[in-house]
Specification:
Elements: E1 9-14, E2 17-22, E3 28-31, H1 33-43, H2 48-58, H3 63-79
Antiparallel strand pairs: 1-2, 2-3
Length: 85
């Protein structure tokens, strides 16, 4: 699964992760370093499985938890309309 942000979404790296701005609504979201790692992996063409494996390699987390976290982030981005269908 390649994740693609819809038009009107801007990203900015921060000291604490990534800020995501919906330019149309003015809403913004802050992702912590783990969320930023997942988002960057998916935007760079990585799969959800790859993002979960990367989380496991970088942080002390098991694969089941990492997979759930990746799924939750993607579902949240879809729910608030940040990604293309």
């Amino acid at each position: 699964m390649t994740l693609r942000l819809r038009d009107g979404i801007s990203l900015a790296d921060t000291d604490d992760g990534i800020a995501v701005l919906d330019e149309d609504s003015g809403e913004y979201y802050n992702l912590n370093p783990t969320g930023a790692l997942v988002l960057r992996t998916l935007l760079d063409g990585g799969t959800a499985e790859r993002a979960a494996q990367t989380l496991c390699a970088e942080y002390d987390v098991d694969l089941a938890t990492a997979t759930g976290d990746v799924t939750a982030l993607v579902e949240e981005f879809r729910a608030v309309g940040l990604v293309r269908a």
